[in-house]
Amino acid sequence: MATPRPFPLEPTPIHVPDEVLDDLRARLALTRSPLDEGNEDWSYGVPAGYLRELVAHWRDGYDWRKAEAAINAHEHYRVSVAGVPVHFLREPGRGPRPVPLILTHGWPWTFWHWSKVIRPLADPAAYGGDPADAFDVIVPSLPGFGFPGPLTGFPDVNFWKVADLWHTLMTETLGYEKYAAGGCDIGGIVSSQLGHKYADELYGIHIGSGLPLDFFTGPRAWDFARNRPLTDDQPADVRARVVELDHRSASHLAVHTLDGATLAHGLSDSPAGLLAWLLERWNAWSDNGGDLESVFTKDDLLTHATIYWVNNSIATSMRYYANANRYPWTPAHDRTPVVQAPVGLTFMTYENPPGIHTTDERVRAFKSGPQAGWFNHVNVNAHDHGGHFIPWENPDAWVNDLRRTFHGRRP
């Protein structure tokens, strides 16, 4: 039986106080825009014109209460895990033997980036699937990323410490004897750590990247290009792709790893500044073909931004990067592969490494490359549609790939 006892907690719906929303609108009304000539194409960063438009909608048109009602259509819980306040969403599985599944987001995600896959995973029959594939879906907010509020007493928070919290949450707090895990971005390495340290208590993991657990280890972890130097003899397409990927992530990694607290002073005081910092990544990292709102509507963007703002969580969300380097990952055992739990992976060609162009090439490159050796990989897939925010951009691919990972691995 997947759930050994009735669910042990009482739901606590999300509710943002009116005064917090009033303060947000007052700050938005006082926004001062920078001079930003010649930047309509985003080549210097987020254009002031587009941000002004979005800020105006946030102030006068966006309805948080409508978003809050949609969020509260799911069960929400708040609990202390090893002294750390944790919020999570739960969608009970509907099937003969639902498998507990914890899904972990990344940055600049919120737990709500999983919203398109939660019900298909929990109730596959309602979406044309097999009820035998049902999961009891648990979607926490990374501590310090959103609800239940600002994270205090955990200044050294990082991905492998969160993995310990998640294991305690699933096994001790919620009483699951065995569970599955999935994640993207930071959530991918949280899930990989679970599959490394707690493999015997997991059915497996499914992740949206193949980052090794020591990705943030070393003196230049902030340098995204450290393993892909530019050389004169590189093919033009490889060189161009290296530069493109650096442009997407160099400032992000460098600032978050080296100087996040300084930036956070501005972003915690100005909702427009916070929105701009998040927005640039949502635009650059999604497969939007030059039209951000083909992936995220204005209301979608503002729902995610509001979750960051009302919880004053930008500083602790960025802290994960510095702390992954400051408190580096160390192995829990010396067995190989490092991640011994069965691993499924979903890749998107939008994030292909240099020199890789097709889905088939992406799968082959992973299986023949050094990253594959980290994982007990049992199911590797790549897709043409979608970018960094896989379960939001291509939810069907994520759901189908994840189901295949755990097919035949259920109790």
From TrEMBL:
Coiled coil feature spans: none
Gene3D superfamilies: alpha/beta hydrolase
Domain Epoxide hydrolase N-terminal: from-to ranges: 10-113
UniProt cross-references to InterPro entries, sorted A to Z: AB_hydrolase_fold, Epox_hydrolase-like, Epoxide_hydro_N, Epoxide_hydrolase
Protein name: Multidrug MFS transporter
Pfam families: EHN
Active site: residue positions: 185, 321, 388
Family affiliation: Belongs to the peptidase S33 family.
PANTHER family: EPOXIDE HYDROLASE, EPOXIDE HYDROLASE 1-RELATED
